[in-house]
Design brief:
alpha/beta, four-stranded parallel sheet, 4 strands, globular
């Protein structure tokens, strides 16, 4: 759903486009316990999807990812678990940069919710209350162009959170992330062409997480979008799609 503006756009350019729900989201399986949501487990899911694609005669060409999907995508590429020709992360930094700079005061304050999510049970109860109204608020309040987050869009995300076991699965990403992320052995350089798109009004991830990426990616392009929030591909799809089209050309 979050890629609803990019799926037809890429398909029109000849791609066979897959946008899978991550483990625990939508109608995907949601095993119980944080041990099932470590970064290596999530990388395994990407590997499995890639293998299925290849078994159907598809060649992994372009990997596009946002937020949590972006972190998993970075990690999958930087551990040589998967191989794509090109990569487009959106509003997610290189994991090597994030795991050092997240402790700096400004980003540490932005990341307060990560620490809150470590509490057992309490975040689930708060997020589920009033038919998951807090989920609606998270999207709406953090967006700049709120017209993109109409009631039907917000209702969709709230309904996903209210699926049995979904909130615990979603929160387990945060609960399992820190130890598994710090144990990852990342390549010194990512060698494939990489386009980083970033909505500059991101309230969760600051622009200070971007500098230095050019030293870790051999062919790096950065395209910030002013006046756009963290939800960049949903809030500014026309701009995002044009940036992608120009870069692919």
């Amino acid at each position: 759903f979050s890629w609803r503006y990019q799926l037809p756009f890429l398909a029109e350019r000849g791609y066979t486009v897959w946008a899978p729900n991550l483990r625990g989201y939508g109608k995907s399986s949601r095993p119980k316990g944080r041990k099932h949501y470590t970064i290596p487990r999530l990388i395994d899911d990407v590997v499995a999807l890639t293998e299925v694609a290849q078994s159907e005669g598809l060649s992994p060409d372009l990997l596009v990812a946002h937020d949590w999907g972006g972190l998993i995508a970075w990690a999958s590429l930087l551990t040589d678990a998967v191989h794509f020709r090109r990569f487009i992360p959106m509003n997610i930094p290189h994991p090597g940069i994030f795991r050092t700079r997240m402790w700096r005061p400004r980003q540490f304050l932005r990341s307060w919710y990560i620490f809150f999510f470590q509490l057992p049970g309490i975040p689930e109860r708060l997020l589920k209350r009033d038919a998951a109204d807090r989920i609606r608020q998270i999207f709406y309040e953090s967006a700049i162009d709120k017209s993109r987050f109409t009631d039907d869009v917000l209702d969709h995300y709230a309904a996903q959170a209210l699926e049995e076991g979904a909130l615990s699965a979603m929160l387990n990403y945060y609960r399992a992330a820190s130890p598994s992320m710090y144990r990852l052995k990342l390549k010194a350089q990512l060698e494939i062409p990489t386009l980083l798109i970033w909505g500059e009004e991101d309230t969760a991830l600051g622009l200070e997480l971007v500098p230095g990426t050019e030293r870790l990616v051999t062919d790096f392009t950065y395209r910030p979008i002013p006046g756009v929030s963290h939800w960049v591909q949903q809030e500014a799809p026309e701009k995002v799609n044009k940036i992608i089209a120009d870069w692919l050309h």
